[in-house]
Amino acid sequence: MKSFTVSIIGVIFILITNILAVDTTNSVVKKENFMIPTYKEWEDPKIFEINRGKPHAHFIPFESKELAIEDAPEKSKYYQSLNGTWKFNYSKNPNSRSSDFFELGTDLSSWDDIVVPGNWEMQGYGTLIYLDEEYPFPPNPPFVPHDYNAVGSYVRTFYIPDNWDEQEIIIQNFRAKPNTKMEFVADPALEEMRWTIAIARIIFGKSMSIQAPPNLSPGCLPDLIAAGINDWGGVSPLTPDYVNPEAPWPHLDKLARDTENAGKNLHQRLTIYPEYVCSLDPWVDVRFHSALLKTVDAEGYPRTDAWTPGEETRPPDEILRGLGFTVGLFDRLA
Asked: Which of 2, 8, 220, 297 has its CA 20 to 30 A from that of 22?
């Protein structure tokens, strides 16, 4: 079970968020491409956010069709709400705030508890404002007071259950299609794709299978591998990508070269991951066990030949090389 700390900075009069997922097992703060705020941005009308996560659709996974139809997220074992009690520190202005509270090892014992979601004014902090059409200070745009511009800092530690490693994550970059409601929406940049993959790898760890379709990022496959994927998904030389037919699958030989150039080896797998093949229960119905095991090797990958140990016939070259034999020498010895 992995432990994470989520840290958020909220400032009245302008929304400034700095959301970090800190892996406490590695004792390292993971953050990339963050703009370092000066805390004077609220006097610049052109800036209305700093480091805010981009809006996106969200989906709740369920372990059964029945639960999905019921649409009760709290019943899914793959759902975790961060609502509840957080550690909270209130400051009258940005200069008096805790500037490094999200670093590991920070002593938060003196911080208060606060309910999230919630309004800190309704929980005893700051000044209650009952009307939305009046300024809480004398208006002089774009300037705001420096002595009172309240800041709230929030922290909560949470745990990712071990059973979340049973899943796979598919990160697919959006491609606009004509005659759809989002035909004029811009495709995400490569940097955003890399960031999303990296964050998924940081949060879910090295055992999670994370895949991205290679046909939607031509010429950039090493970048996706470096970001943290370990699977290209269902690439087929026979069938197209029906969701993105305009983007053909890369030829398998080229995909293998690109993968090798990035320091990895391309290997085919079944639709079920190798680790689940090697531990069939409870993943595969017992009626399919025998047939499935006949198609895979000892590591759970599909066999590419008909040879089995104990036969008098010559093993395939790939097996000989894996055992450290020089193929030509083996032929002479045989």
From this structure: 220
